[in-house]
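Example 467.
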Amino acid sequence: MAYLAALLGFVHWLSCFGAAINSPLPHIPLVGKSYNSTCLILLAIVRGKTHSGPVWARRSDNDENKVVVTDTGTGGTAIELVHLFYDEWPTGIAVSSTGRKFANYPGGLDYNDTNTGNNGKYTVAELVTNATESAYPSLEMNSPPGGAINYTTNPPTAAGYADYLIGVQSVVIDSADRLWIVDTGRVLNENGTLMLASYGGPKLVGVDLTTDKVFQTIVFPQTVAFPDSYLNDVRFDLRPNVTASGQGIAYLTDSSVEGRTGLVVVDLGTGESWRHLDYTTYVQADRQFVAYVWGKQLYANSPGNPFGYITFGVDGIAISANGEDLFFGGVGTRYMYSIPTSYLRDNSVNSDALAQGAVVTRTQKGVADGFETDTNNFIYHGNMEQEAISFFNPANGTDQIFVRDPRINWVDTMSVATDGYLYFTVNQLCFGPLMYPGTDTRQRPFAMFRAKLPNNGTKIGVNGTTV
Ligand SMILES: *[C@@H]1O[C@H](CO)[C@@H](O)[C@H](O)[C@H]1NC(C)=O
Ligand SMILES: *[C@@H]1O[C@H](CO)[C@@H](O)[C@H](O)[C@H]1NC(C)=O
Ligand SMILES: *[C@@H]1O[C@H](CO)[C@@H](O)[C@H](O)[C@H]1NC(C)=O
Ligand SMILES: *[C@@H]1O[C@H](CO)[C@@H](O)[C@H](O)[C@H]1NC(C)=O
Ligand SMILES: *[C@@H]1O[C@H](CO)[C@@H](O)[C@H](O)[C@H]1NC(C)=O
Ligand SMILES: *[C@@H]1O[C@H](CO)[C@@H](O)[C@H](O)[C@H]1NC(C)=O
Ligand SMILES: *[C@@H]1O[C@H](CO)[C@@H](O)[C@H](O)[C@H]1NC(C)=O
Ligand SMILES: *[C@@H]1O[C@H](CO)[C@@H](O)[C@H](O)[C@H]1NC(C)=O
Ligand SMILES: *[C@@H]1O[C@H](CO)[C@@H](O)[C@H](O)[C@H]1NC(C)=O
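Predicted structure in complex with 2-acetamido-2-deoxy-beta-D-glucopyranose:
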């Protein structure tokens, strides 16, 4: 009996060894077989693996050795690397009709971007080569005297210069090919504390790209951009008939982590501005929101405090191709909303009640930062948990993957250009000090990619037509 058992064991061992040395293994060598763990370790050793886990489910396996299907991590349109950021940490990107590229670097999210008065940090730059950048529109405008923090107030506050850039969160090129700079007026200090804004800091600055000179500065009153507001992103509608002044209108998001999030509307002709949807769930993060990027759970880091949830409010913003709907959504929520823009332009006595009643929940979008639109009227947005960018198609109510690539982590801002590409930054925000436990594991360079738009899509022109 003992002899028979030994013989059967030897036969099993032989078949096991046979499977192990059969290289390359047949596509599904283990199905229907009952190899024991010793046998599987032998398989692993013969196949050059030293780990003790299941050998057939490793993502690193060669395709020919795969037994259980494995995610390729890719999909949709291919992405192309355009720029590598070796210096400061970027968020926004804008691409002009002639291919000039601009980025911004917010001291409000990374102290290492904060200008101290003598560290030469810029908050807006033009991308000079594919790996270098230069302060824009001038080094001077990026150099507030004494730095971006005013230490003569108690406690210190962000400096209140209207003629200098403090902490820029977004750069956007409108349909008339002009660059607009969104200055939050806020920066972090060396302790990671976000300084309150002073009047003059939060502003919208227009730069003429033919002269590289500022042609308009709209400073927000403190009743519109509160000291603890965080103006995040902006979109423009330059149709002459949307305002009395005929100069068009801008819509901004206020993503303040301190809480009073909302949408800000600006008449570009009069400079008048007002808010809508403050305190509503549409512009806030969800309770106990947890996101995941690259398999890592994301909680907010709050130095000296217990970890918190991500409370970034409304952030991404995009206007439909015909200018009639504004799409928006927060980082800390998976919903995308829209509102007819006419409700936002209205600032009369009933206007906020009417605006709140006009918001439509369009879709779940995943976790996104910036949004963008093209002439297809697709609403592009990050889908970071899927290492992807997706788009919502208002015409059929669906959200789908546009690009998917393992190089994608935190998709920050996007810019559709007249060359028919969607440009976007991938900046590892999720691996930086803003996330618990606050260890900075970001690795330079940060990246900008682009992807060809579907159906020859391109940038939307002044009247909703192609530029
Ligand atoms: C696994 O199979 C081998 C080869 O048949 C045999 O020698 C060994 O005793 C088995 N191990 C266990 C734990 O069953
Ligand atoms: C940048 O340009 C250099 C020189 O032309 C080239 O070798 C490199 O691949 C480019 N890098 C990117 C990210 O495009
Ligand atoms: C700060 O930024 C510079 C580039 O501007 C970089 O070389 C340096 O490593 C950064 N320091 C930290 C602590 O991230
Ligand atoms: C700094 O604070 C002082 C004291 O409140 C004030 O007088 C000064 O205008 C501030 N400067 C800037 C640039 O904000
Ligand atoms: C930063 O923290 C240190 C240590 O707690 C403190 O001494 C210093 O005053 C803080 N600096 C500012 C600008 O708040
Ligand atoms: C503005 O004019 C366009 C045509 O150019 C029209 O489609 C749109 O409805 C008008 N919008 C308003 C608010 O009047
Ligand atoms: C919705 O529209 C997109 C873009 O045209 C298309 O790819 C997708 O198949 C459509 N989905 C459905 C369910 O109609
Ligand atoms: C895109 O444009 C090219 C060149 O004008 C044309 O050949 C092609 O058919 C267009 N594709 C689509 C999907 O419209
Ligand atoms: C946009 O349409 C208006 C009429 O609504 C017209 O006056 C204006 O010239 C058009 N602008 C462009 C750039 O097409």
